[in-house]
Amino acid sequence: MNDPSERKPSFWKRFGVFFLDAFIVFGVYLGLVYGAGNFALKAATSNEISIIQEEYRTVMVTHGYPYIQEEIFGFYQFDDLGYIKSQMEAGKTYEQAEKAANEASTKIDEEVTKSENYNAAFKTFFAGYNLMRAACMAIPMIIFELIIPVATKKRQTLFMKVFRLGMAKKEDSTPIPTMRVVGRFFLIYVVEYLSLAFISLYIGWEYIAFGFGLLASVASMSFTRNRATIHDLLFGINVKNVDDIYTVGDPEDAVVEEQ
Predict the structure, then answer these.
(1) Cα(104)–Cα(247) distance, rounded to whole angstroms?
(2) CA distance 196 to 209
(3) 9 with 107, same domain?
(4) How far apart are CA 22 and CA 16, in angstroms?
(5) Whether the predicted pLDDT of 1 surpasses 50
(6) CA distances from 35 to 73, 127, 168 (A)
(7) Together in a domain, 92 and 174
(8) Which residues in 218-227 are b (16+ Cβ under 10 Å) and which e?
(9) Domain end residue (candidates: 88, 114, 140)
């Protein structure tokens, strides 16, 4: 059947567009985080970083624990590998040395968190870190998931344009209105990124949100008739070939009768 309303992109074409759009957003995000983002955060929270450094260094020096300094923010960290090596040189087995290192690490954390100065400094730094990450994700999201779709006639992301797909209203195959593009953007940014990212950060798996979002969308594209992601379903969006999206009044989009 050649009815345009029944045609849909293949799973692999739809998945490829979704993956490449996510890849470029995530790539720009990482570039911003490890570039301007970390630089700005380090400058804005330099006093808090100094307090955190000094509290950790004081505890480790007091107990004679070896420590190293990480490169990004200069935080002092317990050198667990160096400690294990020194314990083994003192005659302990690897298992005994590893257990001692774990106990030392726990002791350092317990003593550091007793300091009100450390807790206040860490709270400020962590809030700044989260804000920086959110801002770094907002920039590529706004560019690739909001500005480009709004600016294109058939509501296309960058790779939708490359693969000749667009976003149409489920009800009549015309391009989705601007407010639906905006709603889609906020759903992707606030629900699919921010909420899951911050939850994953608090439980210790910082980038689990991206994997979860990818798997959920792949599952949705696999089992829905129109290869729709979760945000497509919620906003009544069909991702279709551009030839099947009709702009009212545009002669290029005149419906061609089935031969």
Answers:
(1) 67
(2) 5
(3) no
(4) 10
(5) no
(6) 12, 19, 37
(7) no
(8) bebbeeeebb
(9) 114
pLDDT, tens digit, for every residue of 182-221? 999 998 888 777 776 666 666 555 566 566 767 777 888 8
What is the C-alpha separation between 166 and 240, in angstroms, rounded? 6
Tokens of 222: 């696999």
| Domain interval for residue 13 | 4-43+124-250
- End-to-end CA gap in the chain: 11
Cβ(133)–Cβ(116) under 8 Å?
Answer: no
Name the CA dihedral angle for 190, 196, 199, 200, rounded to a multiple of 10 degrees.
-140
Q: Considering only CA atoms, which of 225, 252, 222, 220 is closest in space to residue 154?
A: 252
Residue 100 lies in a domain: yes
Residue 19 and residue 50 in one domain:
no
Which residues, other chains included, contact 191 with Cβ-Cβ below 8 Å and sequence gap of 6+?
none
Q: Mapping DSSP to helix (H, G, I), strand (E, B) and coil, where does residue 160 land?
A: helix
Query: What pTM did the predictor assign?
Result: 0.80
pLDDT score, position 255: 45
In the block, residue with structure tokens 């989705």: 176
